[in-house]
Specification:
CATH topology of chain A: Rossmann fold
Number of helices of chain B: 12
Number of strands of chain A: 10
Largest interface: A-B, 54 and 39 residues
Number of helices of chain A: 10
Radius of gyration of chain A: 18 Å
Largest sheet of chain B: none
Oligomer: heterodimer
Distance between the termini of chain A: 44 Å
Helix content of chain A: 25-40%
Structural class of chain B: mainly alpha
Number of domains of chain A: 1
CATH class of chain A: Alpha Beta
Distance between the termini of chain B: 34 Å
Chain lengths: 268, 275
């Protein structure tokens, strides 16, 4: 059966000053796929993700998500995606329930369904007992699950997760991934996930794109990517082989670093 | 979940219709979140009320001995009370943008901006919450004014009018603040500009002295300062023995028009805060 891709990226480009952070990138993501995006700091992952989440307009090119164009109809795209930014998007000064209520209202969840949907979502994420505690008292893992729950209330077709496990301990990471896999298996949601951790990308993603200096330098299943490198190759080997062992010095301003560290601190 | 018709998705997203009802709910979503935060941490309201209390009790008590500032037979403390009420709302509102920058640095802003809510609903929601915040402080200033023997009008319509003016005035200046936040984007730069802005807005207005005492150039500035009309309306409504100089209709028209214009500008700039 042929189905339209959930995400179709065409020549997507974003230029900052003289730097092309994302440079004519094109690829498709199928319905129900968990798609991993990896690359060194400053490679263009975040820029790409932010364009797909309609937070940053492309310089040229476009993408369609769930059949809607990110440039022509960003408002429609927003209705059909759930986005969990790398930073802390749950409000620490609100309770879990209030955070959910905020999302439910912003996304137009009908009034009569709000309470029941919020409660069942919190239940599913294991947050029911702390629903009425301030999110500021949550652990990093609980916050991530709350943010996941918030981004799922409107039942989006495509979920965009930017570094969902950053700063989490292994147990909390596994819990987040369990929820992600369940969403795919039970509800056929499509996911775009970025991560720095090769092991988890390798373990959980159906396909992976490696991005470096704004270009997709490799794209395929984890097995395909490792195939050329011998039987004992890991995705780390693939990564180093593709982008070199060098740290990227292209981009990544002081502000970005500060925000990343801050996110780490607050999730940790 | 493709079905037999080959349609790629079973659309499960919410049927937002873009109706007025949705818009109001989305605006309220933002405002309600801010109100809930105040309920969780009401101490902030009290600490913010310290400044107007000091102004009224120290500055007001001393200046009340100087005759000829307030027009006619109006006691200066009465004259000042309306100005301080506007001032307390202004000082809260003008730093409101800093919370938008804070939300940007945290990531909460990204949640707002990736939602389907129209940008103007988000901006308006913030403005409404600034209004609610200012109203709760107005109650404190009112209580103090009663203690100081200010000749207040307790006509319910007048009091409703006062609430409306405070509400709109706070929405106006908080939206101005949001616009500045969208332009400067960092807390450090914002603090500098916020400090620089409050003083001229406050002093180039009729908050603590009438325009008639001002040199012509300052008079001209005060005439285009929305705070002048906010204070004028407040004086006309909250005091027993005073009337507005410009007429309540003009005061309200200017405040509403300025708020609408600023909201339109802020709605265009708000997305850029997320870049």
């Amino acid at each position: 059966m042929t189905t339209a891709p959930a995400v179709s990226i065409k020549q997507l480009t974003r230029v900052f000053g003289s730097l092309a952070a994302v440079d004519h990138v094109s690829f498709d993501i199928g319905v129900g796929e968990i798609f991993g995006l990896i690359g060194p700091n400053g490679a263009g992952k975040s820029t790409l993700i932010r364009m797909l989440a309609t937070l940053l307009p492309p310089t040229s090119g476009t993408a369609s998500i769930a059949g809607f164009d990110i440039v022509q109809s960003p408002a429609m795209v927003r209705r059909h995606i759930g986005y969990v930014p790398q930073l802390l998007s749950a409000d620490a000064a609100l309770t879990g329930f209030e955070n959910m209520l905020l999302s439910a209202r912003l996304y137009g969840v009908p009034r009569r369904e709000r309470k029941s949907r919020i409660e069942s979502a919190l239940e599913r994420m294991g947050l029911a007992p702390s629903a009425h505690h301030l999110a500021g008292q949550y652990s990093g893992g609980m916050l991530r699950r709350l943010e996941l729950a918030q981004s799922l209330l409107h039942r989006p077709e495509v979920l965009i997760l930017d570094e969902p496990t950053v700063g989490l301990d292994p147990t909390a990471r596994d819990t987040v991934w369990e929820r992600v896999l369940e969403l795919r298996d039970r509800f056929q949601r499509t996911m775009i996930v970025t991560s720095h951790l090769m092991q988890e990308i390798e373990k959980f993603c159906d396909r992976i794109a490696v991005i470096d200096r704004g270009h997709i330098v490799a794209l395929g299943t984890p097995a395909e990517l490792k195939a050329g490198l011998g039987p004992n190759a890991t995705l780390d080997d693939v990564f180093i082989g593709l982008v070199g062992g060098k740290e990227s010095e292209q981009k990544g301003s002081y502000g970005d670093v500060r925000r990343n560290r801050q996110a780490l601190r607050e999730h940790g | 979940m493709s079905d037999a018709t080959g349609r790629p998705f079973v659309s499960t997203a919410e049927p937002l219709t873009g109706r007025v009802g949705d818009y109001l709910v989305q605006t309220w979503a933002v405002a309600a979140a801010e109100v809930q935060k105040l309920v969780h941490d009401p101490l902030e309201l009290l600490t913010r009320a310290v400044q107007p209390v000091l102004l009224l009790m120290l500055f007001g008590e001393v200046m009340a001995r100087v005759h000829g500032i307030a027009p006619g037979n109006l006691p200066y403390i009465d004259y000042l009370a309306a100005g301080i009420l506007a001032q307390s709302a202004l000082f809260v509102a003008i730093f409101y943008g800093i919370s938008a920058i804070w939300e940007r640095d945290l990531g909460v802003l990204q949640r707002y901006l990736s939602s389907p809510a129209p940008r103007s609903a988000l901006v308006l929601g913030k403005a409404v919450s600034a209004g609610v915040r200012a109203l709760s402080q107005a109650i404190i200033v009112y209580a103090l004014a009663i203690l100081l023997g200010v000749g207040l009008s307790f006509n319910p319509l007048d009091m409703l009018g006062v609430a409306a003016v405070i509400f709109i005035g706070s929405a106006l200046f908080s939206t101005l603040s949001l616009i500045i936040a969208c332009i400067v984007k960092t807390r450090e730069r914002f603090m500098g500009i916020g400090q620089v802005m409050t003083m001229p807005i406050f002093f180039a207005s009729n908050a603590i002295y009438p325009l008639s005492l001002m040199p012509d150039w300052l008079k001209a500035v005060s005439h285009v300062n929305p705070l002048t009309y906010e204070v004028d309306a407040l004086r006309g409504l909250m005091l027993k023995n005073a009337v507005s100089d410009y007429g309540l209709a003009l005061d309200f028209a200017i405040l509403v028009a300025a708020t609408a214009a600023l909201t339109a500008i802020a709605a265009r700039l708000y997305s850029r805060l997320g870049y």
